[in-house]
Protein 1
Amino acid sequence: MKKVFTLLLVLLVSTGFSQNNPIDFEPGGYGADWTWAVFENASNPPLEIIANPDPSGINTSATVAKFTALEAGNPWAGTESAHGDTDLGPFVLDETNSQIKIMVWKPVISNVGIKLVSSNGWAQVEILVPNTKVNEWEELTFDFSSYLNPPAEEGMLDQIVVFPDFDTDGREQDNIIYFDNITFNPEATEPGTDATLSNLMVDGTTVSGFSPSVLNYSVVLPEGTTDVPVVTATTNDPDANAVITPATAIPGTTSILVTSANTEVEKTYTVAFSIGTVPTEPEVAAPAPPAREPENVISVFSDAYTNVEGTEFNPNWGQSTLVSIVEIQGNETLKYENFNFQGTQFDGSLDVSDMEYLHVDMWTADATSVNVFTISPGPVETGIALAITPGQWVSYDIPLSDFTNVDMTDLIQFKFDGGDGSPTIYLDNLYFYKDPTSITNVEKNVVNIFPNPVSQGGDVRLGAEVAMVEIYDLTGKLVASSRSTSVFATGDMRQGIYMIRILDYEGAVQVRKLVVK
């Protein structure tokens, strides 16, 4: 809906789970709504998500997983998450996540096993660790640091398998085991060699997108700013040293040299300051949708089409979000303030199985993570992460096939989440459609990247010189950027999937997926 026309091609990556998040089985957390299959356990009673029967000691959380290891089951009876993007999701095993921990409560002493599996079924042997306590919670650690990632032809790791009672001597009775809080942790560093930061702040606020592994940041300051912001840094190792060299003017760059406690490792973080207008709300309306035949679109919220009737845009799901409909250049737009999550309830259900894409336009100045979910009865829901460009409208066209397991003949709800209760997002043109035309138009000016996949440390070339290239990891963190270029180096980028945001000289934005192998 709008008067200004912007054409964007955005590649979306589903990242419902990050290896920084615990599989905690809590409502609204991770694991409770995953598809856990039980195997080699006689009648295979399903994994249950229940109230913690013993909220004491190291685990006082409310909800845990319950696995019943049957006497008639095999010693290697277990449970596994689903392949694909909906549960664990694809990831690269490296030094930041190779120490996997799990809390268990068991009535017997026996091995607990964990195995990681690729999308094609490739796996190395499970790691077995015995519990040492009975009838109380205990945390076990599984060291995957020596394990390999799958060969490229086998896909990426995307499944976790848990063997709660791997007793090769055989069980003498049914054993009920509880487990909880599966976490992916970094390798322990050699004492005195840590030269990373645990926090980086600008004028008392953590810099947007901060991660210990990301060294370079950009901060846009309001016009009229003359004072260089105060940068403070906290070292991950209290015995490490950080020397801050402030920028001398704006624009300018503040650098932070971190030296490990043993003085053998150094890392330099930078914060580049520039001047620009930082709008807090959109000044123009969202991009105008193309004309479509009525049979090719099912619209939920858009001035361009006839919307389905009876939709409740603010059901009471306990959210902090405040919902309103505002006009921007005469066009109605959804505004979510204090955003943490927000549902949309249809009147009955929608059959969108004949459609091919979900479209949505989003604008935000301060959100760093937004996911959109389609939901069918069960509930069954799948989330897609929206790549964010602050301060401008971004158009998303998501193939419905990306919403795996959701019944598109029986949609009952939408949900947006990812906020912490502080950001504001604006949404418009929320509709399903088929026979897309906007993608075809953009493809005429597509900037190709090659080789893709690229070997770690190799160069990536573009089909044409562009104004800017930005490289993001799957958590949305900026890894590197380059201006006026047709080639960029992968440098120290780890193996995995990255988002490449390309800005051409005409101002059009394209986003590509890059695989570093």
Note: The domain at 37-185 is CATH 2.60.120.260 (Jelly Rolls).
Protein 2
Amino acid sequence: MADTARADVQGAVEPLPDRALRRVTLVLCVSQITTWGVLFYAFPVLATRIAEEEGWSLTTMMAGFTAAQVTAALLGLRVGRHLDRRGPRAAMAVGSAVGVAAILGFAAAPTLWWFLAAWALAGTAMSATLYPPAFAAVTHWGGDRRLGALTAITLVGGLASTVYAPLAAVLEQAGDWRTAYLVLAVPLALTVPLHWYGLGHPWTRTTAEPAATDDPPASDRDPLLRTPTFLLLVLAMTMAGLAIYAGVVNLVPLLAEDGLSIQVGAVALGIGGVGQVAGRLAYAPTLGRLGPDTRLVTVLAVTGALTLALAAVPRPLPLLFAIAFLAGTARGAFTLIQASAVSDRWGTSGYGARSGVLSGGVGLAAAGAPWLGAVAATTLGGYDAAFVVLAVSAFVAVGVVAGSPARTSLRR
């Protein structure tokens, strides 16, 4: 049976009226700050305490976090195809419900294996609730106004670490890590009805090329996905994602290794969230004026330099916090670059599937970031050395982008 919230045939997308688009943007702002905060940013703050209290290996727990990111990345293309055909309503509502189940699984975990299984469930939730589905929704419904909606969503989403990293630390201090997760499940549960009732606008099917049936998916035949230009862009974004996300999730362990408290690490993580907001506010009047590859190269070069700085400057605290803020600005700009990378180069047709592939690469990098960071620190003798490796990854990505100029072929 056809979904009543979409057209059964592919056609021209009708952007939402301003008022409806503002409502959708508000819904996604609330859901993104909540979902990122609960499913992603709480764990780096709580991980060290969980390892201490339960006697579980921190590296193994980070591997569980990695497995969640891998799950989300691998499901990204499938979710993207669903979005191109049916829209975000059901996917994001169900994803939120699965996320609540995962958080409750953390809180109840009697063993490390249970805890790791809950991370696999969390990865399924992430694939349907984090930025890629939200980006697909406003890119489809926003038309020429999509940059404003994308900016608003990432501005608010960028505050997730600012709000939820300190909140997780406070909840853990007031009770324990299990209590913290139980409390954090409440705001996440509220996003289920928010998605269901707030994202029910009509959806026009859009794929990379017309198809008479849903099987096989049109996106399987999209020639763009196999072009060198697209694949090199995916590679560069993946390497950039490794540097950026590993820097986020390993920041607290880096600072703890340098003798700073978990609370100081949480504050630095939160300041980075404020930096994300600043980076997104400044994006349109600064980087937005540049070409797609020029702004990506700029952000990657800055990211590499600041990652090196984090490894070298644990004190004084004001300088550390300033570096964390600047690193957050680069991270914030990168999120908008990721959101617009496909549409800036090849248009909005088939955005869900195309962006799903691109986001899948970034997601795999984010997946490997926690575990690879911990392994690199163990292998190289500390997190300082691991952060140097992350900086090199960002600089190599600069070279990949520089060798692959943007193309506008296959734009639809």
Note: The chain has 15 helices and no strands.
Protein 3
Amino acid sequence: MEYINREELEMLVKDSSREPSVSLYMTTQKGRERARENAIRFKNLLAEAEKRLDSWEMNSSDKEQLLDPAKKLLDSSHYWANQGEGFACFLNPGFYRFYRLPLPFTELAVVKESFHLKPLFSLLTMDGRFYVLAISRKDARLLRATKTFCEEVDLSTLVEKFEAAFDDELPESNLQFHTRAPYAGGTRTAVFFGHGGDIESIQKERLLQYFRFIDRELPRYMDTADGPLVLACVDYLAPLYREASSYPSLMEEIIRGNPENRNNQEIHQKAWAIVKPYFEKPVQDIKNRYLELKGTGKTSNDVQELVKAAHRGRISDLLFVPGIQQWGRFNPQTGEAIPESKAIPGSNDLIDFIVTRTFLNKGGIYALESEEMPDSSPAAALFRW
């Protein structure tokens, strides 16, 4: 699967300037037995996009050239067998991108002056980086993760450093260290200690020494120094690690049980359930602030007003529903948005415009379900001024 971060989204926004721009979204199924079904669904989406291109007065040669990179995918059964939960495709003259993503999408084909990127912003909502340290008497794993993404970090150099620093102090009868790099499949990676039955026979001080070493070295393997860290271990190791650790965002709740019995996907799912409230809090804070300031002129849920505010860079935080479109035309000279009843050449999804402009102007963007919005509008914002 591909991972879409803020830099990738910024690239897509900036490469939207060539028209017509085609955006296709669909849900996909994993596995070889689903490959044909995925390809057929994509073929149907391409046919719909081709129909929509008719209104753009493109000649058949230009249309074929535009869609050709996507059509070449149709014959690749291997590609369609190796999918995530959703697929997104972006095409405009001289440019194309395909993304296999961990998020299902409502089937959608959009042709307009710029890429329709609003559904992708769901990947950034509550999508901060967190970590999982899975430790047992025989295994150490560090997972780097977001809500929709998880990868294992190679700890082999950490284990080697520990062996080099402390090997003379650690009798082989007490602790042994072996390591191997991560490999596909998400199973164990770095084996670091294991003889003896209970905590007493392993020697508490030896474990504390090792845990202090991990705590000191771990930031070198992290992209952020304060992302939430979840422990996955048996109960008796957790208090020892807490005693050894000075990490500021070590979560109270742990994933209980021997992590050797769980693959990375299982650990990721359980860890997300633990950190989800941590990442939900900023969204709830924005919703509360919106309700507090409503009626003061510092908020709005009027789409036409939000278009003008987004164009001027006024929006500090935006809440929106990804699955709702409101079509219209925007006049950059006047800052006015004129509603349209449907998508036609020259029109835009005004909510998509608000989202992408807010994103480019470094505003906060939060994709929510309709029932999670602070009021009945598909978009609501707090203003900078």
Note: The first strand starts at residue 21 and ends at 27.
Protein 4
Amino acid sequence: MTTPTRNTDKFKELAVTSWAVNHGTSVLILFFIITLAGVMAYQTIPKESFPEIEIPMIAVNTIYSGVSPKDIESLVTRVIEQELNTVPDLKQLTSTSVEGYSSVVAEFTTAVNMDEALQRVREKVGLAKPDLPADAEEPGIYEFDFQEVPILQVNLSGKYGLVRLKEIGEDLEDLLEQIPTVLRVDLRGGREREVKVDVSLSRLQYYGVSLEDLVDAVRDENVNIPGGSIDVGEMKFLVRVDGELHDPLSIRDIVVDTRDGRPIYVRDIAEVDFGFAERDSYARLDGRAVVTLDVVKRSGENIIETADAVRAAVDEMQPLFPPTTVVKITSDMSQDIRMMVSSLENNIISGLLLIIAVLLFFLGVRNSVLVGIAIPTSMLLSFLVLSVLGVTMNMVVLFSLILALGMLVDNAIVVVENTYRYVEEGWDRAEAARKATGEVAVPVIAATLTTLAAFGPMLFWPGIVGEFMSYLPMTLIITLSSSLFVALVIVPVLCARYLRLDGEKAKPMPRLGRWILLLVGVVILLPMFLS
């Protein structure tokens, strides 16, 4: 071996790199642990469409059928607005009044505790209820949540009536809601059965009965009443009065009042018909009437696994459908996530191969592989950190990972190339790894920090948009920091053990090293080919 000619006295070794090279076996074991844990994190981390962010908005919706927009505004909207205006931390109120419907949206400051805000809104709506019209429906209070967006729609159509189609949809709805990762299933379309009581005003006047008497009589007959419990010896019996109507047409026989000892039945003052409710929604697909089931998954669950479970449940139940039933799944958001995950995996593999191919002409096969290892290792370390932080694999995170791929290998190239030059000058590989990494450590760290500084301010972007976009800089910072760790800790150890010059006779690789590299290769590549 020739005597080294480079003066390295002015270059300080990086302490963490020197420690890693001196404890190479421990670092190789750490390398394997990071790889294994990273693959496990990648397989288990929830994959979603949108980041989990808290939107500081609450809507209060009230239905008051058959009322004009002007009356809705004066009788419902303004009443609710007056109460909500006193809620603390309120930023602004936005209201909409249309025929038969009122919507009041309360937007809060981003620092508010949404659980407390929701409780205060409920209290204020409770105070407003006595001033609302008696025949208006109960106001509904809803939070805004990206996780409430349906991940897919199951559409059913067939050459038979909408009533039968809706019955099939309800059976499928019950099956889908049994999936643990499904929060709820909303059924739209079809025909609703309802009992219509057509009251005759002249008969009401003839019998001297008010409409309120009729409504109260029907409501009181259609109710279940708990009666407590009775102790008989050592046995305890629960008492329950079953007053719920099971035959809709039995409403005809309900007694509304009595006159001169003679009962007045519903059939005496009204016509009762078991028909269909007036349709308030229509669903069509490819020109055919359909029943649509909107599937909403639970927050934090894997969108791909949930979509697969829904498809499996539909396939399981499809043989039970009538022969002409057509099932079509639309708006499947998991397909976009699949494409982005597949794109990420393809970019990792293609980037690895391209880097090896380019560096092959300058550093040789083995040394090119040492650089290429930095890509999957940095990614797997990033997956591990993201999983520990509880970050889901959503569209923003996936886009950030794909964006960071091109920057992952820069640090490793600098370290390997500089180490290669030291070895060419005659330095021992271990000493060359320490000296070469220490020489370029400051510019490598500075270059990485410069890139991170460009994205850092995005972490402090205020508002909902800022919270949504914060996943972009956070993911880039984690990924580039992981690549810096790999370049300064793992790559020097690999260079110290496995780097060699062109034409240099390869020394037998230690048994432990062979096993670790073999296992790392299997762990990295096998899941990608199986996915």
Note: The CA atoms of residues 259 and 382 lie 81 Å apart.
